[in-house]
Each structure stands twice: as C-alpha cells, then as structure tokens.
Amino acid sequence: MKCSFCYVESIFGRDPKIQNALANAATTFDQAVIRRNNPVHNLQEQLLNKGKPRYDDPRDNRVIYASPLVDVAANVEMAKETIALCRVILEHTHWHIRLLSKSNLLTIVAKALPEYKNRMIFGFSTGTADDQLAAAFEQGTAKVSKRIAALHQLQNDGYRTFGMICPSLPYGNSNQYLQFSSTISEMLRIERCEHIWAEVINLRGQALTNTCNALERAGFKAQATRLKHVSQNKEAWEHYARATYQAHASVIPAGKLRFLQYVTPNTITWWAAQPGAVLLGKAAHG
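^ thats the sequence. predicted structure below, dont judge the formating
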C-alpha cells in the first residue's frame, strides 16, 4: 500500500538503522519492505516471565490498538502474521484488541479467531465514500466499497466493529461537510459500531504536498485547491478541522464520537470543550 497522506516515513525514516539499510540497498523508503525478526517469539518474550503471563489480572481489560505504522491485513501473509500475534496476546492476557485496516482481508483475521470474538474489535478506515476519489490518493488499498462490504459482513456475523473516518478532505461549505458526514456515517452503520473515530489529514512529513499532487494528477482539481488553501493558512486549517468535527458531532452520537485533533496553545481551549474531541500534540500534554 502507498498512500500519499502516509506519515510512517516521517516516523520510521529518522531511525539511523533504517537510513543505513536504505543506503546499503540503494533504495527509497517507499520502495522498501521493513520486517521485524521473529515477531511472534519476541511478543511471547514480552508477555511471559519464566513461562508465566506477566499480565494475568482478569480485571486488566485494556484495549490495545494495531497499528499506526503498518496495515495489519495488507496482504494474506500480513493477515496470517496478525492472527498469530493476536493469538499470543489473547492467550496470555485478558486484553482486548482493536484492529484497523484498509483491506477487506481483515475478515480473514476475524474468522481465524472465533473463540475470541468478544475481545476483538474490527474497523476499516476511509476518508471518503467515493471509490474514484479514494483511488487518487490511496494506492494498493482495497476499494472503499469493498471495505464497507467487509465491515457489513462482520457486523452481520456479530463481530464487534468500529468506524474510522480518516483522512477526510476539506469541503467548500458547512452543508457539504454535513452531507459528507451523513453519507459516510450511514455507510458505516454507526448504530452497529462501538465508536466512530475521525481525523482530518495529518500534518506530518510531506502528507499535504503529496496528497495535493495526487489529487491534481487524478483530475480532482477542486479538492486539490481546497486542500492546498488550508495547508497554507492556519486559520483556514483550523476552520477545516472544526467544520469537520462539527459535522460529525451533529450526526454521530456524542458517546460514540472520538475526533483526533492536534491542538496548539491558541486552539486548545476551544477543542477541550468539545464532546468527543481527543486532544493530541505537545500543547495537549504540556
């Protein structure tokens, strides 16, 4: 998968080991495949102490999330590895696991762990309801329509699900924001989702520039122009984020909405007062 808005390189790419490996292979980050050695064994080592679980308190029902850095079901091989890793966690802890993917292969993971159905939560991310628009800035992912179909299949089969509306683009006016939120919420069947997470495009790395270029190449000139405008104007960016949040908040029940937002000292007061807003960044934790 190669998405123009991806920020993984801005995180992983700073690691000297990664930089050296790329230099030795004479390749770029987006052309490389990075795998961890013996992930299942290493996870067991982290969860066990002399063969006994480190986290054996039955009241410890924390929810862990996978993954901000890799798609857990990008292909069949990754889906099988995800199954193995989840099984280790489920066998040695009482934790719940929330998995996010842009691939309809996530259903493979669900079907492989039926005995842990009550501890697994599945979701598919998309920032648009339009297959063609999504294809402009998401390469190698399943079509939005296929993700939604997979989500509905899991919901119909009684699996726990959540929605992830991200990264969503700026729109021209409040009615367009509301129409987008209403459409995507209906597609996700929010009444069957435990939570709905949402986010505008992340500011890290070259995400905005790359996405603008991808939209222009695909012929989505208006979307590229709006995104370029908000990327060059802090007030416009803040309006974009608030308009997106307000549209979602008017459609999604307050108890379900989780809107991820990076805040600054100048914006934190407004965001802190918004139900369902999850504050991120230095200002939120300073």
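The first strand starts at residue 2 and ends at 3.
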